[in-house]
Design brief:
heterodimer; A: alpha+beta; about 20% helix; B: about 220 residues; alpha/beta; seven-stranded parallel β-sheet; 8 helices
């Protein structure tokens, strides 16, 4: 029987007290930081990431306030410690597979309120880095 | 200066999941991701499942927990390959990610496996978000957890293809509304089959394993 001890997420080891902050949004925050860093154009020297724009769906498991907190922890003592998160929360929208009626349910009911048919989710699952705002410091 | 990114936050995980999926397809291995809250009876259910189908399908299990190898030790009675993943020695990741499965796979001879079951970390929230390259997702819900669990965790029930309602042998001792839990499940996922089982005395296991066998044979042959 093989036993693996893997103290990291997304290929990145947690540093210091990050390892003891067990929240779902912590792994999300570290992925956002990695994507933001990777998105700075190579031909831009000395870039500072001032803002990261996100779309977070209300049906995703990410809670924006928790994400902000975890981002602050993950970015602590890094070049992103003053970076702002701009979060657009996307409402849950469903579309009926039968009558094509679209609605935004207040409760987790995935049946069409008009004809009681199954529905598809057309928005509300997003977890997206939309863009970053950078300044050049050369 | 604004730089357009437009990337899913879990791009890296999804890419790893896609690579896993290619390997599983090439090796003709059916992969089932079993999820639940802690204590629903995943391990006991898997033991009963493997007992029921082990002579027809070559099985292997990857077990995820934050700590301990207890679940893997329990599964050892099945005499199949078992890989235990501990996500952190002191309390770590609350789900299994695709790259973790990639690592664990290296320790299994996939040429000798028809069905790979992943017992995910006990958690009804995060595992639903993380694609690991599986073919099927199954949620285990026990009758001791309350009928409204599906309403509280709709993403999990929306993301899975089947639900196992476990511990039904305890129903005579509970005030549990079986019709209500099925109604709640089907208002979130109308197409979801619900298998009433007991991992304790084995009732319902045949219906569940017959359903899973049909899915597995469709892929592996």
């Amino acid at each position: 029987m093989e036993v693996w001890n893997l103290a990291y997420t997304g290929g990145r080891r947690y540093r210091g007290n990050q390892a003891f902050l067990i929240m779902h949004e912590m792994s999300i925050a570290t992925e956002i930081i990695a994507i933001a860093r990777a998105s700075v154009p190579e031909n831009v020297s000395g870039a500072e990431i001032k803002q990261i724009y996100l779309k977070i769906g209300k049906f995703s498991t990410v809670i924006p306030t928790n994400l902000r907190f975890c981002f602050e922890v993950a970015a602590h003592q890094s070049e992103l410690k003053d970076t702002l998160l701009e979060i657009e929360e996307v409402p849950l929208t469903i579309r009926c597979r039968n009558c094509r009626f679209e609605e935004r349910p207040d409760e987790p009911v995935f049946l069409c309120s008009r004809c009681n048919s199954p529905v598809d989710i057309i928005s509300g699952n997003e977890m997206e880095v939309v863009s970053i705002e950078i300044t050049e410091n050369n | 200066m604004e730089v357009k990114v437009v990337r899913h936050v879990l791009d890296a995980n999804n890419a790893a999941a896609a690579r896993n999926r290619m390997v599983f397809a090439e090796k003709k291995v059916m992969v089932v991701n079993v999820m639940s809250s802690p204590g629903s009876g995943k391990t006991a259910t898997l033991i009963k499942t493997i007992e029921a189908i082990g002579d027809q399908l070559r099985c292997a299990v990857i077990v995820g927990d934050i700590c301990t190898t207890r679940d893997a030790e329990r599964l050892a009675v099945c005499n199949i390959p078992v890989v235990q993943v501990n996500t952190n020695e002191f309390g770590g990741d609350c789900h299994l990610a695709a790259h973790v499965i990639s690592k664990a796979m290296e320790n299994i001879d996939l040429d000798a496996v028809d069905l790979l079951i992943v017992e995910n970390v006990g958690n009804l929230v995060c595992p639903a978000e993380f694609d690991i390259g599986e073919d099927l997702r199954v949620v285990v819900l026990s009758v001791t957890e309350g009928e409204d669990k599906p309403l509280k965790y709709p993403l999990m029930f929306r993301a899975c293809q089947a639900a196992l309602l476990n511990k039904v042998d305890l129903l005579p001792y509970l005030e549990y509304d079986l019709a209500a839990v099925k109604q709640y499940i089907h208002q979130i996922n109308p197409d979801m089959p619900v298998f009433e089982i007991s991992a304790n005395d084995g009732r319902g296991i045949a219906d569940w394993t017959n359903w899973m066998k049909r899915q597995t044979l469709a892929k592996t042959y």
